[in-house]
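Kindly inspect this chain:
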Amino acid sequence: MRVLVVGSGGREHALCWAIAASPLCQALYCAPGNAGIADLATCVAIKADDIAGLVAFAGRERIDFVVVGPEAPLVAGLVDRLEEAGIKAFGPSAAAAALEGSKGFTKDLCAKYGIPTAAYRRFTEVGPAKAYVRERGAPIVVKADGLAAGKGVVVALTLAEAEAAVEAMLGERRFGAAGASLVIEEFLEGEEASFFALVDGTTALALASAQDHKRVGDGDTGPNTGGMGAYSPAPILDETMAARVMREIVEPTVRAMAAEGRPYKGVLYAGLMIGPDGPKLIEYNVRFGDPETQVLCPRLMSDLLPALIASSDGALAHFDLRWFERAALSVVMAAKGYPGDYSRGTEIKGIERAASLPDVMVFHAGTRRDADGRLLADGGRVLNVTASGRTIDEARTRAYQAVALIDWPEGFCRRDIGWRAVGAR
């Protein structure tokens, strides 16, 4: 098969790494890709949100299958456009991608179909939103309804923080159209976890569990980010809890989307809070997680590509996946200043030394090469230093050994990735 992966981050590098190993993959392309992906695939200078350009390329190059990485092109209808052109693709339609494209849509769906989630209200005006915040008290969560590049959620610990978030989103329109409507919801106590399932419209197939680290600083301090590291498996999502998540959250959502005339195909990523009453949905994403994909792919024993095709074809009912018992952990190396202002173009050395360690893989998230072949940082989250081990402890030790071999003074990372699971398998 001739396969095109859409995207340029660490998630796409991990997907390309897995797909390139498939006997089914004859030729692999990535648009636009990055310096690391270029070692596995032919990178094409087409941006992930250039819907017309991607469809034209896929047709011109006789692409058999397209795997869409980021959420924005899914919400914009890339899969619909590809299928209209007769090109098979992995990912939801624009109508189904509303599960991530509109937090309000998802909350309303949960309310209608009895899917456990935080209590909430929706707002389009500053005054009523602030009044609701004062009525509910803090801590409280303020969310932009639409896509805001992972920055549209504020976990406000005080009323002042919550009111400032409302003002920034609705009053100042900091996120443009994405923040024209807000969801304000109760603060959930518990432990966060990421749960993934492949879905083919009617059947959901659970993948391995993972846990992300959203805050920028050690000890889960500082602002939220796109994710500073992850590990798999997540001890809190044992077999019993995973079965509850499928039964109470994922499968009812798949049925609900079909009933709403928006059948869901692709990967369904449930961000969960596991509390004393069991799992509750924080939000849905309609694509593989980043950086969770970077720990899921090394643990997958089965060939990934046929599973993605089965999702697209509606053929998951008799499909199964096998996983390595070993754990995996990934440390994100980011440019200093992230998630705020940061500089681009700083040189990174030592990747080869780090990647030469046993059971270590360095996935590139935001890199490019200059005319002289030097590796340069080209984003906020730049590298995903990933390691496998018999336990999370062992994987963590190897990952940080690899981090120590990377020479990038302008970069930083958290030093406590995996802290919740230290000592666990």
Observations:
- The mean pLDDT is 95.
- The radius of gyration is 21 Å.
- The chain is about 30% helix and 25% strand.
- Residues 115 and 252 are 7 Å apart (CA to CA).
